[in-house]
User: Which sequence fits this backbone?
């Protein structure tokens, strides 16, 4: 599985999450996507919760580069040095790990390792990991800048896309959420509205 | 496989326990009256669903439910954020870890612990509790929503007086006929049936199928009918009564029906004392004396302190009775009580058919009078048997309809039926009372009834009365109120380990009576 794409390198670590710098500017894993990083005998799994792109040199304020003829991608073509002046980073919340081919959906005993690689997960991996949805509860306690409802619904949509039966998956996820949020109906409702299958809308 | 429908989440022994429905079981799958088995840690219980409800974990849900077109959310919430509950009254302990399955289930003294699994009771569990058809047990129908053939232990049933209640047209008569058939087959006793509307003897009528066979056609050798009518078809004899057999007690019971004042009723006692057995004839004769010969009447009124008005009131009542077609005018003594007695003692069931005389006055008069005299004989026989240490007379069950006429608060104390009901078969006589309005029956009598069968009733007072003296009354009340308007009933009490709501067997079911070659003809119990 490790043949899938390396997308970043870890630059900041704590028990519940890590941050990584993207291998390439603007090639950021999707919000709510599942990523993996090796840690000793384990593979840690994490959900992308936040991303930024900013100057490499923190003191430098970017200025607009476009003009009437050049915009978007053309700006980069015209100024190849730009690729070096900026970097993309993302934060991921750890939601479980695999050890000896077995998935656990809770926090690993040890955090991720600095400078280790982060890989995007394949659909197959996502399917395998998301068979058990109890990891969703770990997402409710993140104090990221994004609303939990947005985050949770994004994860569920990601996993649903990877699943064999999207509708069944959404229903299963919905029921897991209903159990987790049985005292907080308004929140549940907001998430359900975000993951509702298209044809049901 | 987990076939549970939910888990116990709360409750008490006195108030019943609550199950949260799970495993995709919806409240819509569960009807009140259903039986459930609850597997506790050490004990297994059987109980009845007495109510179902809807709950939410967060009250917000009731305030802003999912949009009506949002099936997705509704499906998800169902069973989790919004779930069904079932209120269950536990009745029996059917197994425990020390003793395994109990041979005889015991009444519950505790309840299953938290999170015990609840599932629908199986036919096999039912059978273990209620038994199978055998020489004692008779299949009376199916528990609602179940295949199991509900069996009633007939000898146990007839140990006590019993009641069948329900509003008009619910199936009381049809079920009673079934029970009587069962008693004729499976009890050691004998029946005396006061058949107000000619429904039990030769044939009965059905709203749907015209005529249906009566008991006599099923048990030709074991049932005789006597009719109040002169030339009744299919009747084995005529009921005629002698004026001499009427006692003041009869008038104290019939007083209201005969429009008699209390003073007029007291006057009957005075006249009986004065004139002896022939009192009615004497009074009627005196009342017809001309003005010239009036000394005798004045003498009577004066010495017995009877007011003129009361006397006239009494005479009107006596005249009314005397004009009835079933008063013996032949001059020779009626032998009806002996005839009935000899049949009963010989184990032959007797149906008294009222035919055209189905008015309350006649029904009360005749049943009181016959029952009183037969009961007297029974008492003598029993006392003699006790004194001589010989066998007591064959147990007798007397069936009466519109029982509140005899057993209401003001009459129950003195009427013969009140006495029988209260005595609890001291002299081997019990009652089967049928009534549309149990609230009219004295409460003491109601609480003496051993087994009760309740068809649909919509008057709360009647339901309360029929359930009086039963535990878990509130729970059962809900069940009675939800019965179908025909052929569904709740049966509970002495003869059953726990209450069951059931559908009485179809009376035209050809499998109706099966056992015993002699009863072979009962097989084809179809309308004629
Ligand atoms: N077990 C049964 N099998 C077949 N038909 C039945 C049965 N029970 C009731 N019925 C139908 O319902 C009708 C009414 O039943 P039934 O005469 O027993 O009512 P009831 O309770 O005695 O009424 P009432 O109080 O007016 O005497 C019957 O005529 C018959 O058509
Ligand atoms: Mg009837």
Assistant:
């Amino acid at each position: 599985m490790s043949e899938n794409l390396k997308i970043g390198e870890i630059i900041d670590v704590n028990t519940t999450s890590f941050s990584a710098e993207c291998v390439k500017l603007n090639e950021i894993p999707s919000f709510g996507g599942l990523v993996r990083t090796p840690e000793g005998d384990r593979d840690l799994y994490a959900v992308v919760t936040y991303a930024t792109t900013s100057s490499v040199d923190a003191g430098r304020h970017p200025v607009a580069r476009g003009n009437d003829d050049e915009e978007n991608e053309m700006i980069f073509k015209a100024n190849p040095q730009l690729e070096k002046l900026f970097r993309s980073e993302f934060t991921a919340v750890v939601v479980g790990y695999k050890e000896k081919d077995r998935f656990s959906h809770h926090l690993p005993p040890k955090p991720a390792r600095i400078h280790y690689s982060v890989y995007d997960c394949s659909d197959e991996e996502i399917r395998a990991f998301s068979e058990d949805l109890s990891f969703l509860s770990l997402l409710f306690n993140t104090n990221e800048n994004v609303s939990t409802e947005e985050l949770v619904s994004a994860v569920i949509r990601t996993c649903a896309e990877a699943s064999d039966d999207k509708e069944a998956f959404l229903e299963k996820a919905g029921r897991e959420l209903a159990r987790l949020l049985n005292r907080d109906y308004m929140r549940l409702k907001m998430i359900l509205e975000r993951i509702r299958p298209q044809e049901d809308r | 496989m987990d076939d549970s429908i939910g888990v116990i989440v709360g409750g008490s022994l006195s108030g019943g326990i609550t199950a949260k429905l799970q495993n995709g079981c919806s409240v819509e799958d569960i009807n009140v009256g259903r039986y459930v088995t609850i597997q506790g840690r050490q004990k297994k219980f059987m109980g009845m669903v007495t109510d179902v409800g809807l709950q939410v974990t967060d009250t917000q849900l009731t305030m802003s439910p999912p949009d009506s077109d949002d099936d997705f959310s509704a499906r998800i919430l169902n069973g989790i954020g919004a779930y069904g509950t079932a209120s269950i009254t536990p009745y029996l302990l059917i197994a425990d870890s020390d003793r395994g399955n109990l041979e005889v289930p015991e009444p519950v003294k505790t309840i299953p612990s938290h999170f015990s699994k609840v599932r629908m009771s199986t036919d096999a569990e039912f059978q273990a509790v209620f038994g199978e058809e055998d020489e004692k047990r008779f299949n009376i129908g199916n528990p609602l929503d179940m295949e199991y053939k509900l069996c009633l232990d007939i000898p146990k049933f007839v140990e006590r007086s019993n009641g069948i209640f329900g509003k008009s047209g619910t199936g009381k008569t049809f079920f009673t006929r079934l029970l009587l058939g069962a008693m004729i087959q499976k009890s050691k006793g004998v029946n005396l049936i006061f058949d107000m509307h000619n429904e039990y003897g030769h044939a009965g009528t059905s709203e749907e199928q015209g005529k249906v066979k009566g008991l006599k056609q099923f048990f030709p050798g074991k049932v005789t009918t006597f009719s109040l009518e002169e030339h009744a078809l299919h009747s084995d004899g005529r009921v005629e009564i002698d004026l001499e057999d009427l006692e003041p007690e009869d008038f104290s019971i019939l007083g209201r029906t005969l429009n008699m004042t209390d003073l007029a009723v007291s006057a009957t006692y005075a006249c009986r004392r004065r004139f002896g057995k022939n009192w009615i004839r004497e009074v009627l004769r005196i009342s017809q004396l001309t003005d010239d010969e009036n000394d005798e009447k004045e003498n009577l009124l004066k010495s017995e302190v009877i007011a003129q008005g009361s006397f006239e009131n009494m005479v009107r009542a006596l005249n009314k009775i005397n004009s009835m077609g079933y008063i013996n005018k032949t001059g020779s003594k009626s032998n009806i009580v002996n005839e009935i007695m000899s049949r009963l003692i010989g184990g032959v069931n007797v149906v008294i058919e009222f035919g055209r005389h189905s008015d309350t006055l006649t029904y009360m008069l005749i049943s009181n009078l016959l029952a009183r005299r037969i009961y007297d004989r029974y008492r003598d026989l029993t006392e003699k048997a006790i004194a001589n240490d010989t066998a007591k007379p064959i147990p007798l069950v007397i069936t009466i309809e519109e029982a509140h006429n005899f057993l209401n608060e003001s009459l129950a104390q003195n009427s013969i039926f009140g006495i029988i009901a209260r005595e609890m078969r001291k002299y081997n006589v019990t009652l089967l009372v049928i009534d549309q309005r149990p609230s009219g029956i004295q409460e003491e009598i109601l609480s003496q009834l051993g087994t009760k069968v309740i068809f649909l009733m919509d008057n709360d007072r009647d339901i309360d009365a029929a359930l009086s003296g039963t535990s878990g009354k509130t729970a059962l009340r809900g069940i009675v109120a939800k019965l179908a308007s025909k052929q569904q009933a709740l049966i509970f009490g002495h003869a059953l380990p726990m209450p069951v709501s059931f559908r009485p067997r179809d009376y035209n079911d050809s499998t109706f009576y099966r056992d015993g070659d002699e009863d072979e003809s009962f097989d084809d119990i179809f309308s004629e």
